[in-house]
Write a structure and sequence with these properties.
The chain has helices spanning about 15-25, 40-50, 80-95, 115-130, 155-165, 175-180, 185-190, 215-225; strands at about 5, 30-35, 55-60, 100-105, 135-140, 170-175, 195-200, 230-235. It is α/β, with parallel strands linked by helices.
């Protein structure tokens, strides 16, 4: 049976961030994810999860200066100390909330892509060592939405995971990004499921509710179930006409 997690950074934006936990639970969700928890104290996040009987399945490590356009700092060798401090911050939140996996954003690469990739590999290794008992995820993000993002290819992600051989290093398979970067979504799921630690869904190309775009999302979800994926599927989409009004797509799933 498929399990879904509401992404509280994309959904339930009609409510303030702390109130989104209650709104998600009231809508029937038993699990949540979001981009970042850092505007609240770790203890407050844990309290909200416990109060509303929610499981926290994923969030991102600190991205650097998000307001200035940064999308991670892992690929910058000169910011190694800041990156390692950000990992420790994320782990504090993860342990307080019982979150089993963290997304490590690569960052937007400078001109020297080879140097950026070497720094990124080093950052992944360090994070995997530090995150005892917690999975580290890398997610290919398309360069149309985030120009210059270093981790922009599912083949590169699979290569790094295969070469590094870290038991807690996994792929974050976002169906929207897969379609934009490569297409061939169901074949990608079939090939990459053994290294996949988390899946996210939204429609392509507008990133609204599943089953509202160019893909056969029902067939994709059937493929995920056939492949015996046991984790949650993060609903990382922008509701087209309000969160609650857009939840009807879930009723189409058997």
């Amino acid at each position: 049976m498929l399990k879904f997690a509401a992404n509280l950074s994309w959904m339930f934006k009609e409510w303030s961030f702390p109130d989104r936990f209650a709104a998600a639970a009231d809508a029937g969700f038993q699990a949540v994810e979001y981009l970042f928890p850092y505007e609240l104290a770790p203890e407050e996040i844990a309290r909200l999860l416990a109060r509303h009987k929610l499981k926290q399945v994923l969030f991102n490590m600190p991205p650097g200066d998000w307001a200035a356009g940064e999308k991670g700092i892992a690929c910058f060798p000169e910011r190694r100390a800041a990156f390692r401090a950000s990992v420790q911050t994320a782990l504090t939140y993860a342990r307080a909330s019982g979150t089993p996996r963290l997304h490590l954003m690569s960052g937007i690469a400078p001109g020297d892509t080879s140097g950026a990739l070497a720094a990124y590999r080093d950052s992944i290794q360090w994070a995997c060592d530090a995150a005892d008992g917690i999975d580290i995820l890398i997610e290919p993000i398309n360069n149309r939405d985030v120009p210059g993002y270093l981790m922009n290819n599912f083949d590169l992600a699979a290569q790094l995971i295969g070469e590094m051989q870290r038991p807690n290093l996994k792929l974050q398979f976002d169906i929207y990004h897969r379609q934009i970067i490569h297409g061939d979504v169901t074949r990608g799921l079939e090939t990459l499921m053994p290294i996949t630690g988390h899946i996210q869904i939204s429609s392509a190309p507008l990133r609204h509710e599943p089953m509202s775009g160019e893909l056969d999302d029902l067939r994709i979800l059937e493929t995920i179930e056939r492949l015996n994926y046991a984790g949650h599927i993060g609903c990382e989409y922008n509701p087209a006409a309000g969160t609650l009004a857009g939840l009807g797509w879930m009723k189409r799933i058997g």
